[in-house]
Amino acid sequence: MVAQQWLTMRPAHAMRSSAVWIALNEFPRDHLLLIDQWTTHYASKGLTFAGEPVSRAVWGFWSLSFEVAIFFMARRFSLLETGALAWGAGYVVMWLVVGNLGMLPMSILHYAIPWSLLKAFGAVWIVEKRVKVVVLNVGGMVMNRSLPEADQLNYLPRVTQPTLMLNGKHDMFFPVETAQKPMFDLLGTPTERKRLIVYDVGHLVPRLEMVKETLAWYDTYLGKVK
Q1: Looking at per-residue confidence, does 182 or 100 come out higher?
Q2: What are the Cα distances from residue 119, in Å, to 13, 65, 124?
């Protein structure tokens, strides 16, 4: 069940979780740890630092918008690259703009820099797909009824990673037409990134073939080991 959740976390759930992580970091920092620096700096400009209702609304919108951007970046770049891009675009650029407007108390930066790095990389870690590639050795639809939260019908369409299935033609537990092919067809992985190999055997796939095809699949999508 845990493996299924890591493999198929819904995008909306991932983004909400990550946005909550960002918001929970932003608000305590600015309204508990650094509130004196903010209020003093704003007072020196003849302004009043935003109260909790306004600040919560602003940071809520900011957190959600920032997380949507992170989610889509994480689909294209590695965790390190996405974290660096998110931190640079989301915080460094913001500090430069706010600093040029004279609205940033520079005394907070020695707190803000490490804290923002933690927020950015933590948010990326939440939405990043943990599983990059999938090999299913003897995969197939189960015949017994399952609870909705564990039913393959609810999970398979959300599996989008490159997937290799290795099966036997004469498998009595996972028949080709009623278990193997339905599972393969239900996978959300694009057609060109999934493959089903059926051997002329029973339930167990020949070990040497399994190793050969698995390593070749990993080489294709993870890169060859140097």
Answers
A1: 182
A2: 18, 14, 9
